[in-house]
Design a protein that fits this description.
By secondary structure, this protein is mainly alpha-helical. Helices cover 60% and strands 5% of the residues. Strands 1, 2, 3, 4 and 5 form a five-stranded mixed beta sheet that branches. Strands 6, 7, 8, 9 and 10 form a five-stranded mixed beta sheet that branches. 50% of the residues are buried.
Length: 997
């Protein structure tokens, strides 16, 4: 008897053998059923070797209790102690699978299926499983026989007799045998249907690939034909009935549960298409309508049941189409987009626990391997395998994947599949989530051979393998290209020139020969620069391929690297700053504007880093003005000063464009900006602030050169149009008014001459040809337009506006805002025009009619000849002009009473009008969405083409690039145009109601 307070020796031994609840285990060991072997050390050692000794002991007691009589119980115990193979298999299963323990408790004699230990039993095939299912004559008995066969696979799996790939293959073979048995039951139930048709069952997915899980949907496609002399429609109805019955036999829940769902949704048209088609119907669909992912799915197609001849005909007819898929437009982006969509659809709470679909998961390996198979499989039949690991081995043998990379992926894939198998085996439930419960993690770790600290060891190993997959799965596609051009490892199998060209074409490169030359120039050699670029390029190539113009991205990267490659900080920035490399790839492949700005001063690439020295956040006007004025002070003369100011402008335009591109494309670290209005506002404010600072610096430089510290006249610049509204785009001119006021005692003619000279010299210096983009100053909104003087005094403006101002001039003044020069003079000018733009009592009917007449004339006269009005972002129906004139009419009418309307900004004025009840929320939202979209179209055109435009490009590649900026993936330019037309059409209906009514 054990002394009080002291643990028994059995308790201690149980702890030492891995039991977590020794007290419960002691009670179970004391059960009468275990009395004959309670003290046998062999039993305790065997239990301690299982994944979960507590679970194994509990299952063993249940199995003994389920035996029909003492004789059967004694037979089980004797065999258990005497036969090590049975002991290891039975206790291994009981310690790993609660569900199979339940099965054994219900079918107490099925443990005998584990006694056999013959050579042929080590690797069972379809015929073995068909014999195991042969006696099943109804769905219930089929389930019992299926579980008995599954028991033998699980036993050999947990004992290590078969590895994870062999386990997956046997599970697929068992599924094949089960589908055949289910079809036989269906045919026996409806012999008249079976006599009318030939039906073939084609396995897809993991079953087709010979790599099935313990619990998985079994994906199939059915193909049917009429027997000779039978009516085809009637035969197809019979085949559909048989296929439906087969699916029910496997899927429906009975007293013995279900086997697994049979999923036929990979068939043409998915669940909306007929369940069974003829071979010719399948072929017609794949030739005309199938999407890229459907050919990817056909990689694993394998006939498994039904008419073998028809199944073979199906594969023979469709396989050639599979190997032509890589020639489809946008092939690689389509495959990658589908992978991203899978990740995006994972619930946020599950992403970090997903073994299959999450980043670094099983699907990453499978997608990468399938992508390479489709690209190179047409020319190399050795790649025609539906099994992931076999295909990976073939890719490595052919030089399509680096051997070291393939070995690491193989190891990681096997580990992750083993985790998946053991997680599912526990309760035979379909799941791909790593458990959170400590006990579940402990059992999982021990089942994989991690005994010292199973939980910590499991988590470490999982994260390590997931990290390997995450690091390699994208590089897998690109690294062999570098090996092929760099040729640093003689004797290694590598891509042939033709295979490298095929891969570049598949990635979307229009000129693969030039692209390979760029890669060779970047990656060849033994310098530190080449070594770092060989590390960077596999990732960069993936990002370039994700753009509308991979060729331009790679070429631009070569140019930047040629310019900065010997600069120590450049390669260090790309290597060490997490965001810099991806930001650079996005910027270099998104169009012409940002790369052109960067090439003129490549050191601006430092802005793309995510450290304190970089950053793409826009700088405020005060900070920009301070920098430009400081540059002017340091310069010798106006020419040098304005050149410095224009250099600041170029750098900041690049910063703004880069931030816009990154926000619109998104990166791994920063998702796509959801609020497109915020993107537009940031660009408009940044470019407007930069333009104001540029004018302030230029004004100071010109004044200092000609007149020293003080001009003979006060001078102010008033922003107009989009400039005054803080809505400038990349290609916008600066609309301004110039106002001056002679200083006390100054000669008025001298003051006027000085003001005109300042304006003339500012315009000249800001347009002098140089490496920096010019800034065009447009003063056509001044009184009397182009016919009026370029500069006026404040008194002249006052006199003109009092006596002669026209409706269009009052209208234009709604955007007037001081931007540079003498602040007091600018303030007084704004005070002068406020009564004009916000008239007391609003507008009279005549003024409203005049504004409408002007708007109608502008629509008819200013639209470029040949342009599609419905796609003109500025002047077309529902475009910028429509929205702005509608908002500005409300400002002219109600601005005197409603303070919120007294703003130069379109969106702010629209929001204020909505708040004041002048426009419904629905209509305000419609106008706002149209204005934001039209503005983004104009910004996109400038970013892509490098020159301003108000219509969508006609060049397909440029149109695709605009689509990418606007959030439309490859091949969806038509959807972008349709979205623009819909948005503009809704906005025009609101304009007709509010502006023209």
């Amino acid at each position: 008897m054990t002394a009080p307070g002291r643990r028994s020796s059995t308790f201690t031994r149980l702890l030492r053998h891995g039991f977590t609840d020794p007290s419960a285990a002691e009670r179970l060991l004391d059960a009468v059923e275990l009395a004959p072997v309670r003290d046998d050390p062999v039993l305790l050692e065997a239990l301690g070797a299982t994944a979960d000794p507590d679970l194994a002991l509990h299952g063993l007691v249940r199995l003994l209790e389920a035996q029909p009589d003492p004789t059967a119980r004694r037979e089980l115990l004797d065999t258990l102690i005497a036969a090590k193979p049975l002991r290891d298999r039975l206790l291994g299963v009981l310690g790993a699978s609660e569900a199979l323990a339940d099965h054994l408790a219900r079918h107490a004699g099925d443990w005998r299926a584990l006694v056999t230990y013959e050579p042929r039993d080590l690797h069972r095939g379809v015929e073995d499983f068909e014999r195991g299912l042969a006696e099943a004559d109804d769905p219930v008995s089929l389930r019992v026989a299926y579980r008995r066969c599954l028991l033998s696979i699980a036993a050999r799996d947990v004992c290590g007799t078969i590895d994870v790939a062999e386990t997956a293959a046997e599970l697929a073979d068992l599924a094949t045998a089960t589908l055949r048995a289910a079809l036989a039951l269906a045919e026996a139930a409806a012999p008249e249907d079976a006599a009318l048709c030939r039906l073939a069952v084609i396995a897809m997915g993991k079953c087709g690939g010979h790599e099935l899980n313990y619990v998985s949907d079994v994906d199939v496609i059915f193909v049917g034909e009429a027997v000779e002399g039978a009516d085809e429609p009637r035969a197809l109805r019979a085949a559909t009935a048989l296929a439906s019955h087969l699916m029910r036999i496997c899927s429906e829940t009975t007293v013995e549960g279900s086997i697994w769902p049979v999923d036929a949704n990979l068939r043409p048209e998915g669940r909306n298409g007929p369940l069974v088609r003829t071979l010719s119907s399948h072929l017609a669909y794949y030739q005309r309508w199938a999407k890229t992912w459907e050919f990817q799915a056909l990689l694993k197609a394998r006939p498994v049941a039904g008419d073998p001849g028809l199944g073979a005909e199906y594969v023979a007819a469709l396989q050639p189409l599979v190997w032509q898929a890589a020639d489809r437009e946008n092939f690689v982006p389509d495959v990658q987009k589908m992978r991203r969509r899978v990740v995006e659809n994972i619930p946020a709470a599950e992403v970090d626990r997903q073994l299959k679909l999450g980043p670094g998961g099983l699907r990453d390996v499978e997608f990468a391997v399938q992508l390479l198979q489709l690209v190179h499989g047409r020319a190399d039949t050795s790649l025609h395998s539906g099994t992931t690991l076999d295909a990976l081995e073939a890719l490595a043998a052919g030089g399509y994947v680096g051997r070291a990379d393939a070995a690491q992926l193989d190891e990681a894939y096997r580990f992750l599949r083993s985790m998946e198998h053991r997680i599912q085996l526990h309760r035979l439930r379909r799941t791909h989530l790593v458990p959170e419960d400590e006990a579940d993690l402990r059992r999982l770790g021990r089942s994989l051979g991690l005994r010292t600290d199973p939980v910590a060891g499991l988590l470490r190993a999982w994260k390590r393998h997931a990290s390997v997959v995450r690091r390699l799965h994208e590089k897998l596609f690109y690294r062999p290209l570098l090996d092929a051009v760099a040729q640093l490892a003689p004797g290694e199998a590598r891509l042939s020139a033709e295979a490298a060209r095929e891969r570049m074409v598949a990635l979307g490169y229009a000129d693969p020969a030039a692209a390979l030359r760029h890669l060779e120039a970047l990656a060849s050699g033994v310098t530190r620069k080449a070594a770092i670029q060989r590390t960077l390029l596999p990732v960069l190539l993936g990002w370039f391929a994700d753009s509308a113009d991979p060729d331009a991205g790679l070429l631009n990267f070569r140019k930047v690297s040629d310019a900065l490659g010997k600069t120590p900080w450049y390669l260090r920035l790309l290597r060490d700053e997490g965001a810099a490399a991806e930001n650079l790839a996005r910027v270099l492949s998104a169009g012409r504007l940002a790369p052109d700005l960067l090439m003129r001063a490549p050191e601006a690439v430092a802005l793309l880093g995510d450290g304190n020295a970089g950053g793409l956040a826009p700088r405020g006007r005060a900070q920009l003005e301070q920098e430009t004025l400081a540059a002017v002070r340091r310069a010798d003369g106006a020419v040098q000063a304005v050149a410095a100011v224009r250099g600041v402008r170029r750098r900041e335009l690049f910063r703004t464009a880069a931030a816009d591109i990154v926000g619109s494309y998104g990166t791994e670290a920063q998702p796509v900006e959801a609020d497109q209005g915020a993107l537009v506002d940031r660009v408009g404010a940044a470019v407007s602030d930069l333009t104001a600072a540029t004018l302030a610096g230029t004004l100071r430089a010109v004044a200092r050169e000609g007149w020293g510290d003080t001009l003979p006249t006060r001078f102010a610049i008033i922003g107009m149009g989009r400039f005054g509204g803080h809505e400038l785009g990349y290609g916008s001119d600066a609309d301004v008014l110039f106002v001056h006021e002679p200083r006390d005692g100054a000669d008025e003619r001298e003051a006027a001459d000085a003001a005109n000279k300042v304006v003339s010299e500012m315009r000249r210096l800001l347009q002098v040809p140089s490496a920096d983009p010019p800034l065009l100053i447009d003063a056509d909104l001044r009184p009397e337009g182009k016919s009026g003087p370029l500069v006026r005094t404040l008194k002249s403006y006052e006199a003109y506006y009092r006596r002669w101002s026209l409706a269009w001039e009052r209208h234009a003044l709604l955007r007037a805002e001081f931007v540079a020069g003498d602040e007091d003079l600018g303030r007084r000018f704004i005070e002068l025009v406020d009564p004009l733009r916000y008239p007391a009592g609003g507008l009279g009917d005549d003024a409203v009619r005049e504004i409408r007449r002007l708007k109608a004339r502008m629509e008819s006269e200013r639209l470029p000849r040949g342009a599609d009005p419905k796609l003109h972002a500025k002047l077309g129906p529902g475009g910028l002009s429509d929205v702005e004139w509608t908002v500005q009419l409300m400002q002219l009418r109600h601005g005197h009473e409603e303070a919120g309307l007294r703003t130069t900004r379109t969106r702010a004025a629209l929001a204020a009008a909505c708040e004041a009840g002048l426009i419904s929320t629905e209509n305000a939202t419609t106008l706002d969405e149209a204005w934001v979209l039209a503005t983004r179209v104009r910004n996109a055109v400038m970013l892509v083409r490098g020159r301003a435009g108000d219509t969508f490009p006609t060049d397909p590649r440029e149109l695709a690039a605009v689509g990418r900026y606007l959030g439309h993936g490859p091949g969806h330019a038509g959807d972008m145009l349709d979205e623009y037309r819909r948005t503009a059409r809704r906005a025009r209906a609101v304009v007709d109601e509010l502006f023209y009514a």
